[in-house]
Amino acid sequence: MPLEFELCPGTMIGGNHPCFIIAEIGQNHQGDIAIAKQMIKMAKDCGADCAKFQKCELEHKFNKKALSRAYTSKHSWGKTYGEHKRHLEFSHEQYRELQKYAKEVGICFTASGTDEMAVEFLHELNVPFFKVASADTNNFPYLEKTAKKGQPMVVSSGMQSMETMRQVYKIVKEHNQNFVFLQCTSAYPLNAEDVNLKVITEYQKEFPDIPIGYSGHESGINISLAAVALGAKVIERHVTLDKTWKGNDHQASLTPSELAELVSSIRLVEKAMGTNIKKMLPCEKPCYDKLGKSVVAKVKIPKGTVLTLDMLAVKVAEPMGVTAGDIFQLVGKTVTEDMEEDDSILPEVVEGYCKNKKC
C-alpha cells in the first residue's frame, strides 16, 4: 500500500502531505463542557488539524476495586478514583454536542476509546479515525476489534517494546491497511533523555508501508520539531488553557501560544525540508555572480600552449571564466589565444572544452 491515506475527510497524511497535528485535549477540560468547547476553538485557531478527547466507559475500563480506591492526590476531583473519573467523563450526549461544535468550528474531532465499549460508542459517533492510547497497544483483542471497524487508526507506543509493536502491526494489518504508529514515552512531563527520537527511524525501517509519527509529553516544542525533521507524519501534543490547573497532564501540555508556535514552526520546517536534489538554486545566483570562483592564468600562457595544472589558479575573477570545478578538465587542452598572467580562462579560448555546449 502507499504511505498515504485519508485520515480525516479531505485530509491526507503520509507521503508528501503536510504533517497532521493533533491537539490532545484529553481530560484537560476539567469536566466542564464550556471549557472543552473553548479548547476546541483554541485548537482550530492555533492551526491544529484535529481536536482529540479521551473516552471511556468506566465500568469497562476499571474493575470495582480500582474505582473504589481512595484518591487523595492534589489533582483529585473526588474522594475515590471512580468519583474523580466520573467528574471528568462526558456523557454520550455531551460528546455529540462537542462533535457538532467541532464541525461548526471546522476542525476534525475524535477521541481515544480506552475500552471496547468506548470504541463502540465512537464508532456509532462515526469519528474519522480511532486513536489507540499507549495503555491499550498491547491489548490485542481490543486492537483486533478496533481494526475490524474499518476506520483509520493512530496507535501510540508508550510502554511497549519493538517485539510488541511487531505483533501490533501484524494484528492491525490483517484487518486494516490504514494506520499510523507514534513513537511515544509515557511520562508526564517527559525528560529529553527519555524521548528516544531514534525510534522513529527504526519504525520507518521496520514498518516501511505505514506512516510514522510522534506523540510527545515533553516541555516546549523543539523536540516535536526534530521529530518532524526526522519524517514524523503525525504530531500529537497535549494542550491546556492553564498549566496550573488541577490534573496530571497540564504541566506536560502546550498553552495556546505554544501550540500556535508549534504549528507555524512545523510548517516552516516542512518548507525547509525541500527536495533531496542537490543543485545550485536561483536564489544562489546573486552570491555566485559576486563570489563564485573561476580559473585564471597563473602565468603568461602563449597561444598554442598545452595547459598543465601549474599554469592555472582559482580566483574570483572578472569576467567570470571556466568554473573552478572544471579546472582538471582543462589540463591537456590547448589555448587558442595568448593569455596574460591573471587573465580569466574563458571557455572559448580552450580547444576541446565544451562545458554546456554541444561538441
From TrEMBL:
Molecular-function annotations in GO: N-acylneuraminate-9-phosphate synthase activity
Documented EC number(s): 2.5.1.57
Pfam family, one: NeuB
Reactions catalysed, as given in the entry: aldehydo-N-acetyl-D-mannosamine 6-phosphate + phosphoenolpyruvate + H2O = N-acetylneuraminate 9-phosphate + phosphate
Gene3D superfamilies per UniProt: Aldolase class I, Antifreeze-like/N-acetylneuraminic acid synthase C-terminal domain
Source organism superkingdom: Eukaryota
Residue stretches making up the AFP-like domain: 294-353
InterPro entries given in the database record: AFP_Neu5c_C_sf (IPR036732), Aldolase_TIM (IPR013785), Antifreeze_III (IPR006013), PseI-like (IPR051690), PseI/NeuA/B-like_N (IPR013132), SAF (IPR013974), SAF_AFP_Neu5Ac (IPR006190)
Signal peptide range in chain numbering: none
An annotated GO cellular component: extracellular region
Keyword line: Antifreeze protein, Secreted, Transferase
Subcellular localization, as worded in the UniProt entry: Secreted
Main location: secreted
GO biological process terms held by the UniProt record: carbohydrate biosynthetic process; carbohydrate derivative biosynthetic process; N-acetylneuraminate metabolic process
The family this protein is said to belong to: Belongs to the type-III AFP family.
Function: Contributes to protect fish blood from freezing at subzero sea water temperatures. Lowers the blood freezing point. Binds to nascent ice crystals and prevents further growth.
Name of the protein this chain belongs to: N-acetylneuraminate-9-phosphate synthase
Organism phylogeny: Eukaryota, Metazoa, Chordata, Craniata, Vertebrata
